[in-house]
C-alpha cells in the first residue's frame, strides 16, 4: 500500500491538525523570543536541575556559546514551527523538535522535591508537557502527513 | 461510514480519472492547505505588537540614561601609596576591595570554589581591576590584625599559602607614626567610631588623603573640627557610604528629579537583621589578651572622651555610660565595641547613616529640621547600652516631607526602601520598582485606558536592565532575586570596590568624591540628632543659622 493511502479522512485530518498545532506552538514560542528585547536563555539555563544541570549551567559561562544557544532557540523554534505548519521538510523539522524538547526536558526534569525558580504552570511528576509533546512528535514521525497535506507533497512529488 | 469503507472510498477517489484541471487544483489545495494558518498567526502577532507599542511609549518615560556611577580611569595615573589604620572586619574588607588579602583568605576562597564550582568569589577576586596602589604601612592595636594586614599588603600576586610575598609593609604601633611616614600619600581609616574624628584631623594635618568608614564622628563637637580641618585642606576626602555607588539609586534619583512620581511626602527606610554578627556580637579572637592589645590606645583621645562625658552627664544620660570603667581591659568591649555608647554610635551611626545617606544622595535632603527617636534593648540583653530596636523620624518641613527609619536586630524580614509620591512609589531593594498610584493625576488617562494597572509594579530596573510591565513573569522574577546582576554586568558589582576606586581616581584627577565632607557633615549631624533624641527622650532641632543642634 502506498503511504498516501494509509489514513482515513478523519485520521488524516486530526494528524494534520496535531502537526499544525504543534507547529503553531513552536513558531510562536520562537517569534515571542525574537520580539522580546534582549531575550536570553541565560536565566532558564541557570535554573537547570537534575543530573545534567552542571552541563547546562556550564553553557552560561561562555558568552559566545550563549549567543549560539539563544539563536538556536529563537530561530530554531520559529523555523521548526513554520515547517510543521506548512508541511515542508517535516522530517528534519521533527528531528529538530525532538532535539530541542529533549534538551528542555533534561535541563528541567520534573523530579520530586526539585524546586525551579521559574515555576511550571502545572503540577508534574516525571512526566511534563515537554515529554508529552516529544512523544506526540515521535507519533507524527511514524504517521507522516506532509506528503499528503503540505508543501512536501510538491517537494517530494514523483517526477 | 466505517473506516474501511472510508479508506476504500479514498483509494477509489484517487484512482478516479479526472480532468487535468481539477487534478492540479486538488494538488495545489492539498499542498497549500495549511498556509491560511500563517495568516492567523500574522494577525495575532500584529495585534500584540500594536498593543505593546502603545504600552512601550508609556514605559519608556522611565527608561532614560541615568548618570554613570563609575568614574573614568586615567590610563597613566600615578601609583598611590596607602596606609591602613584599623584592620578588623571592615578594614580587611576594604583591603580586599583594594585588591589585597591574606594567603589564608585566598586559600579559603579556593576551598569554596572547590566545593562549589558555581562559587565565583575566587575568580572575581583574581579578576578584580587593579587599582594601582601599594600598601606601605598598616596599623592596628591588636598585633594579630596588624600582622595579617601586613601579609595581605605584601600578597601582591594574590597567592595562597606558601605563595611568594612581596616586601612587607611597615607595621606601625601607633597611628601617628603611620601618619608621619613620608612614603604614604593616603590613608584608609576603619577604626571604632570613637577614633574617627581625631584620626581624620591628624591625617589631614599630616597632608594625607582620607577614606574613612562611616559614621563621620562620635561626638558633636568634634564634627565641626573635622569639617573645618577637611574644608581648609587640599586633601581628597571620602566617607565610606558605598551605597553612593549603587546603580539603582542613581536611576531612582533621575526618576525623582524628572518628577515622575509626583510630590513626595513620606520616605520609609529600615534595617532588618537577625543574627548575633548583625547585632555586633562579633567573635573574640583566641590570641587576644592584654599583651597583644594596646588597650591604652583603644581608650581614645582624652579630649573626645571629655566631650562625651560632659554631654552624657549634662543631659541626664549618665546611665548609658559604661557600665565598666574605661581603663579596664575587656575583650568584649574591644571586639564588640559597637554595643556601647562609650565607643560606638549605635544603630544611628552604624546603620541609619547608610539609609539617610542614600536618601540624601537621591533627594539632597540636607540636615533634617528635627528628629525624634524611640526604642530600647529588647532582644540582646547582653549588657549593651545601645538599643537593638530603634525608630527615628526626621522632619523636612521645607520639603514637606518626613523620613521614617525603623530598625530591629531581631528580625530580618525584608523591607525595601520606599519613596512615596502622589503619582507613584519607588521601592528600592535588590531592584528598583515603580508602582503607579491609583489616585495619580499624572497617569490618570493611562490608568483609565488600561495601559497602566495601578497597584502593580509598572516599571522595574535591575542592574543595567530596564524591565517594564511587558516583560515576562520570569524576567520579573529573576530580576527580583537579583540573578540578572551577574548576567548584565558579567559579574556582581562590589560597591565598596567602586567607592574606593572613586576616591583613588579623585586623588589622581583632583576631583571631588561623591561622599565628601559636606555630605559627611550632613550625615553626622542627622545621626547625632537621632542619637540625642533617643538618649534625651525628646525632639532635637537643627538651627540652620547657627549650625547647631538645639532643643527647641
Characterization of this structure:
The complex is a heterodimer of chains A (159) and B (552). Helix content of chain A is 62%, strand content 0%. Chain A has 159 residues and is an all-alpha fold. Chain A has one domain. The longest helix of chain A is centred in the N-terminal third of the chain and has 27 residues, at 9-35. The two termini of chain A are 19 Å apart. In chain B, the strands form 2 sheets. An 11-stranded mixed beta sheet of chain B has the order 15-14-13-12-11-7-10-9-8-16-17, with helices on both faces. A 6-stranded parallel beta sheet of chain B has the order 3-2-1-4-5-6, sandwiched between helices. Chain B is an alpha/beta fold. In chain B, a hairpin with a 2-residue loop joins strand 11 (417-421) and strand 12 (424-428). Chain B has a domain at 80-244: Rossmann fold (3-Layer(aba) Sandwich), CATH 3.40.50.720. Mean pLDDT of chain B is 88; it is low at 1-15, 467-471 and 480-491. The interface between A and B is medium-sized, with 36 and 32 residues.
**Can you give the helix content of chain B as a percent range?**
40-55%
Our Rg estimate of chain A from Cα atoms comes to: 17 Å
The main pleated sheet of chain A reads as:
none
Integer average pLDDT of chain B? 88
Total individual domains of chain A: 1
Pair with the biggest interface? A-B, 36 and 32 residues
Beta-strand residue percentage of chain B: 15-25%
Structural class of chain A: mainly alpha
CATH architecture of the domain at 80-244 in chain B: 3-Layer(aba) Sandwich
Strand count of chain A: 0
Indicate the overall shape of chain A: globular
Strand order of the largest sheet of chain B: 15-14-13-12-11-7-10-9-8-16-17
Number of helices of chain B: 20
End-to-end C-alpha gap of chain A: 19 Å
Spatial shape of chain B: globular
Oligomer: heterodimer
Q: Round the Cα radius of gyration of chain B to an integer and report it.
A: 31 Å
CATH top-level class of the domain at 80-244 in chain B: Alpha Beta
Termini gap of chain B: 99 Å
Helix content of chain A: 55-70%
Order of helices and strands of chain A: HHHHHHH
Amino acid at each position: 500500500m502506498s503511504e498516501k493511502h494509509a489514513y482515513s479522512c478523519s485520521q488524516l485530518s486530526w494528524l494534520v491538525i496535531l502537526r499544525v498545532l504543534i507547529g503553531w506552538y513552536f513558531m510562536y514560542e520562537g517569534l515571542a523570543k525574537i520580539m522580546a528585547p534582549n531575550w536570553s536563555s541565560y536565566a532558564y539555563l541557570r535554573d537547570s536541575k537534575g543530573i545534567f544541570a552542571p552541563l547546562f549551567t556550564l553553557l552560561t559561562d561562555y558568552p559566545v556559546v550563549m549567543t549560539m544557544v539563544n539563536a538556536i532557540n529563537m530561530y530554531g523554534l520559529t523555523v521548526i514551527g513554520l515547517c510543521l505548519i506548512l508541511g515542508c521538510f517535516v522530517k528534519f523539522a521533527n528531528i529538530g523538535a525532538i532535539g530541542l524538547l529533549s534538551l528542555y526536558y533534561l535541563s528541567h526534569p520534573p523530579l520530586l522535591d526539585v524546586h525551579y525558580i521559574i515555576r511550571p504552570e502545572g503540577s508534574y511528576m516525571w512526566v511534563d508537557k515537554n515529554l508529552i509533546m516529544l512523544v506526540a512528535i515521535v507519533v507524527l514521525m511514524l504517521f507522516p502527513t506532509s506528503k499528503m497535506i503540505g508543501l512536501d507533497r510538491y517537494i517530494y512529488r514523483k517526477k | 461510514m466505517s473506516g474501511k469503507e472510508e479508506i476504500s472510498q479514498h483509494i477509489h477517489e484517487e484512482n478516479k480519472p479526472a480532468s487535468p484541471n481539477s487534478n492540479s487544483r486538488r494538488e495545489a489545495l492539498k499542498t497549500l492547505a495549511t498556509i491560511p494558518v500563517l495568516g492567523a498567526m500574522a494577525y495575532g502577532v500584529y495585534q500584540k505588537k500594536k498593543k505593546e507599542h502603545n504600552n512601550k511609549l508609556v514605559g519608556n518615560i522611565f527608561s532614560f540614561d541615568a548618570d554613570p556611577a563609575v568614574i573614568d580611569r586615567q590610563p597613566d595615573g600615578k601609583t598611590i601609596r596607602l596606609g591602613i589604620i584599623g584592620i578588623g572586619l571592615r578594614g580587611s574588607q576594604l583591603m580586599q576591595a583594594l585588591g589585597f588579602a591574606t594567603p589564608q583568605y585566598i586559600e579559603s576562597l579556593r576551598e569554596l570554589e572547590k566545593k562549589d564550582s558555581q562559587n565565583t568569589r575566587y575568580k572575581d577576586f583574581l579578576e578584580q581591576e587593579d587599582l594601582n596602589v601599594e600598601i606601605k604601612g598598616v596599623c592596628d592595636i591588636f598585633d594579630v590584625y596588624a600582622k595579617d594586614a601586613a601579609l595581605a599588603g605584601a600578597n601582591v600576586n594574590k597567592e595562597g599559602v606558601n605563595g611568594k610575598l612581596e616586601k612587607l609593609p611597615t607595621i606601625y604601633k601607633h597611628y601617628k607614626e603611620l601618619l608621619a611616614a613620608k612614603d604614604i600619600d593616603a590613608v584608609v581609616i576603619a577604626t571604632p567610631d570613637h577614633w574617627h574624628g581625631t584620626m581624620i584631623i591628624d591625617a589631614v594635618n599630616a597632608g594625607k588623603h582620607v577614606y574613612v568608614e562611616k559614621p563621620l564622628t562620635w561626638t558633636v563637637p568634634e564634627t565641626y573640627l573635622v569639617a573645618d580641618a577637611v574644608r581648609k585642606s587640599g586633601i581628597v576626602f571620602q566617607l565610606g557610604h558605598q551605597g553612593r555607588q549603587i546603580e539603582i539609586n542613581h536611576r531612582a534619583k533621575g526618576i525623582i528629579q524628572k518628577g515622575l512620581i509626583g510630590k513626595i511626602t513620606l520616605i520609609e527606610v529600615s534595617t532588618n537583621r537577625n543574627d548575633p554578627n548583625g547585632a555586633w556580637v562579633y567573635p573574640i579572637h583566641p590570641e587576644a589578651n592584654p599583651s597583644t592589645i594596646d588597650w591604652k590606645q583603644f581608650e581614645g583621645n582624652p579630649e573626645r572622651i571629655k566631650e562625651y562625658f560632659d554631654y552624657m552627664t549634662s543631659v541626664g544620660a549618665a546611665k548609658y555610660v559604661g557600665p565598666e570603667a574605661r581603663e579596664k581591659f575587656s575583650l568584649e568591649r574591644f571586639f564588640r565595641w559597637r554595643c556601647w555608647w562609650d565607643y560606638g554610635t549605635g544603630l544611628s551611626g552604624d546603620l541609619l547613616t547608610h539609609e539617610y545617606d542614600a536618601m540624601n544622595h537621591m533627594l539632597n535632603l540636607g540636615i533634617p529640621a528635627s528628629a525624634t527617636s524611640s526604642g530600647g534593648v529588647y532582644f540582646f540583653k547582653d549588657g549593651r547600652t545601645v538599643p537593638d530596636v530603634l525608630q527615628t523620624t526626621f522632619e523636612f518641613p521645607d520639603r514637606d516631607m518626613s523620613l521614617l527609619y525603623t530598625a530591629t536586630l531581631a528580625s530580618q524580614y525584608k523591607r525595601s526602601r520606599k519613596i512615596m509620591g502622589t503619582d507613584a512609589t519607588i521601592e528600592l531593594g535588590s531592584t528598583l520598582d515603580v508602582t503607579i498610584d491609583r489616585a495619580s493625576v499624572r497617569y490618570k488617562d493611562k490608568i483609565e485606558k488600561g495601559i497602566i494597572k495601578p497597584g502593580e509594579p509598572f516599571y522595574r530596573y535591575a542592574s543595567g536592565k530596564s524591565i517594564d510591565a511587558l516583560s515576562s513573569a520570569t524576567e520579573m522574577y529573576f530580576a527580583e532575586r537579583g540573578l540578572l546582576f551577574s548576567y548584565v554586568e558579567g559579574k556582581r558589582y562590589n560597591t565598596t570596590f567602586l567607592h574606593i576606586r572613586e576616591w583613588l581616581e579623585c586623588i589622581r584627577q583632583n576631583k571631588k568624591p561623591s561622599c565628601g565632607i559636606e555630605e559627611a557633615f550632613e550625615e553626622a549631624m542627622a545621626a547625632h540628632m537621632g542619637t540625642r533624641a533617643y538618649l534625651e527622650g525628646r525632639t532635637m532641632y537643627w538651627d540652620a543659622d547657627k549650625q547647631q543642634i538645639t532643643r527647641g
